[in-house]
Design goal:
2 copies of one chain form a homodimer. With 154 residues, chain A is an alpha+beta fold. Chain A has a single domain, classed as Nuclear Transport Factor 2, Chain: A (Roll), CATH 3.10.450.50. Helices cover 27% and strands 38% of the residues of chain A. The first copy, chain A, is built from 4 helices and 6 strands. Chain A has a 6-stranded mixed β-sheet with strand order 2-1-6-5-4-3. In chain A, a hairpin with a 2-residue loop joins strand 3 and strand 4.
Chain lengths: 154, 154
Amino acid sequence: MSAARTDTEDVELANTAFYEAVERGDFEAVADLWLDERYGGVSCVHPGWPVLSGRGEVLRSYALIMANTEYIQFFLTDVKVAVAADTAVVTCTENILSGGPAEDGAELGPLVGQLVVATNVFRRTPDGWKVWSHHGSPVLAESDDEDEDAEGAV
Amino acid sequence: MSAARTDTEDVELANTAFYEAVERGDFEAVADLWLDERYGGVSCVHPGWPVLSGRGEVLRSYALIMANTEYIQFFLTDVKVAVAADTAVVTCTENILSGGPAEDGAELGPLVGQLVVATNVFRRTPDGWKVWSHHGSPVLAESDDEDEDAEGAV
């Protein structure tokens, strides 16, 4: 009998569940975690991709990614949650290890490491917190010289 | 005496004002458009950057970018607004033309074009809609072959 969880804890659990569903390649779970269209339009940006809008476009992208991903694991760090009434913004760093389908009889394709940062917006619904917007982007440079990072990028 | 604007129109105006403030290099206007800390923690991801959290870190990044940007113009396309109660998610494509400070006596540094997609989350406050979260990321590939885009990217 644990104490009631706070909104922040519930949102963080939903955020974790979202990545675990992708790790498992569980399309139904991913679809269930994205906000139902009746609550408003969803949007999704995968690293380097243009914006995808609406459940149809977003879920098709996950089906496509899952078909091309044999193995994927997310090590989430720097998870920050900000809740305001029925909406929450989560930012986190996705330390990704992934591999495509095997080639030439190998058990698994080559593994690739990726550093991605994400902003995930959640909405509270009667069925729990659901993903309203996901935006992931590659971290292109880590430099101590902030001046270099800043040039021309907004 | 125009008819009252809808929430969607108000949010789109706030989104436009945000980019115009950056175009003008108007730091005070940019600071005014970011959500006040008392309403919750803000977050910001510039293209290729890690996550910045809190007004201090976010506003310092704008000061730094403005100091390194002599000229910047945003041509916004594909602007989509989703409003739910006191929160709104805007996605748009930022077609950016920018230039750094002049070198070697030139009037302006070399101009660079950039294709960036953004997810901007706004909150309704007594002072209007304010930016709660901004996430911009480079569009790295535009390919008709969706399979190629999908590999390993989530």
